[in-house]
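Students often ask why we bother encoding 3D structure as a string. The short answer is that it lets us treat folding as translation between two languages. Here is a chain of 99 residues written in the first language.
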Amino acid sequence: MTAAGLRTGGIPLVPVGFSWPRCATCDGALQFVAQLPVEHGTVAVFICANDPGQCEEWDPFDGGNRAYLFPSGTSGGLVPATVPAEGRPGWGRCRRSGP
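And here it is in the second language, the structure alphabet:
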């Protein structure tokens, strides 16, 4: 078990059994952005960065982003996530071409 706290990028801490989120538009793995401690637990934020401009990253209902609240005292605590190959931070999967 690892202590949760502020994290930006890298690998999030998640409950045991967490399934990595996928974009509702392109079905690619979402990229972990940040983890924020809040009063009742920890919020983990993910966004689609698979094909910038294709997916509705900023629309809260289109599935190009996700925010999860992991309540304080989550059974089993929070552990480093198992990251899918296409969701590894810093290993861009952007298919954009040109300058």
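Translate back mentally: The chain is about 0% helix and 30% strand. Keep this in mind for the problem set.
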